[in-house]
Amino acid sequence: MARPRSEEARRKALAAAAELIVERGVSSLSIEEVAARSGVAKTTIYRHWPERASLIIDTVRSTFEHVGTPDTGSLRGDLLTFFGGLVRADLSGTTGRIMPCLIDAAGRDPEIETLLERIGVERQQPVLAIVARAQARGELPAELDPTVVIGTIVGPIVFRKLVQRLPVDLAYVEACLDVAIGGLGGHAR
Fold it and tell me: What is the mean pLDDT of each run of 10 residues along the chain (189 residues)?
C-alpha cells in the first residue's frame, strides 16, 4: 500500500500532467513541466514513472471512471450502464479534453499511437464481455463480430464529440444504442 505522502504526490503529478496535456498537447509533455506544475520533485516523479510513456498512460487512466462490466441481464441495459457511465465521467470531464490531444498526437508519434491502441484495447474489454453474454442469451446473432458492435456504437459517439464538437448526453447514447442493436440484428429487452 502506498504511503499517504507518496499517494498525494502521485495524485498531484497526474493532475498536473492532465492539465499540461490539455493545455499544450501530449507531445510536449515533460517530466520537468509536471514537476514544476505539481510541486512534486522530479526524483519522486521518476520513481513512480521511470519513462514518459508510463506517465502519459497513467495520466489518461487516472481520468477514466471505472465502470466495470455491468450485468443487468440485457444487452441494452448493460450497454446503457457502461456507455452511460463513460459519457457522464469520461466525455464531459478531463478525459473528454485529453482524448482529442492523444488522437491528434498519435498521427505523428508512434509511441503515442501505441499508447492509444493499448488504452483502446483495455477500454473495449467490458464491451466484449457484454456482447459475448448477449450472444449467449440469443440477443445478438452468434456469428456477429464483437468489434463490429463496438464500432457501431462508439462510432457515432466519437463522431459527435470529436468531429461535430457537440455534447454527448445519455439521450443521445440511448438513441445510438437502439439504432445499433436493431441494425445489428439484435433485440432490446
Answer: 76 95 89 96 95 88 79 94 77 74 86 86 91 94 92 90 86 92 72
Report CA-CA distances (Å) from 16 to 51, 57, 101, 152: 16, 14, 15, 34
Q: How far is CA 49 from CA 60, 62, 172, in A?
A: 14, 14, 38
Written as nine digits, the cell of 63 is 481520468
| pTM > 0.85 | no
Contacts of 182 (CB under 8 A, 6+ apart): 188
Delineate the domains of the chain, giving CATH numbers in brackets.
Answer: 4-60 (1.10.10.60), 64-183 (1.10.357.10)
Residue 173 to residue 157: CA distance in whole angstroms: 7
